[in-house]
Task: structure prediction
Amino acid sequence: MSFAAKFIAITLAALSASSGVAGHLDARASASVGTPILVDVTSHAEDATAKRLTSAVMKELSGDSRFALAAAGVRGSVNISLPSGVGWERRLDWTEITYQARLNSATGRSRIVAGHCWNWNLPVCAKQIADAAAQFSSN
Result:
């Protein structure tokens, strides 16, 4: 058992002894291991940074066990609609990227998520979008 796994097990045991939180954490952990969330990604990226963001999101979703990529329009999938462009602002020697993405469920619910990251670290934005999609599908 790795150090991280031992640490989590010890932490959960301590939490269950002091409060009922561990049961809640165990339920969330087992839910994330279950059936993956079907997602399809649509993007009409026009600028290079938006195209790189789309690529980072696709890579994040395909590497995350919570998700399974689906073709557009597959029944029951969550649609992640990415922007055609992103905002940016120079900060010293770096560029901060801001984005908005729309999450649409098969039941007609919709949510806008927004975030930011540095232009050299777009996987951070991709992780923000993936986490928002996981939360959106669980509600």
Observations:
- The mean pLDDT is 80.
- The longest strand covers residues 94-104.
- The helical segments are 3-18, 21-33, 48-63, 122-138.
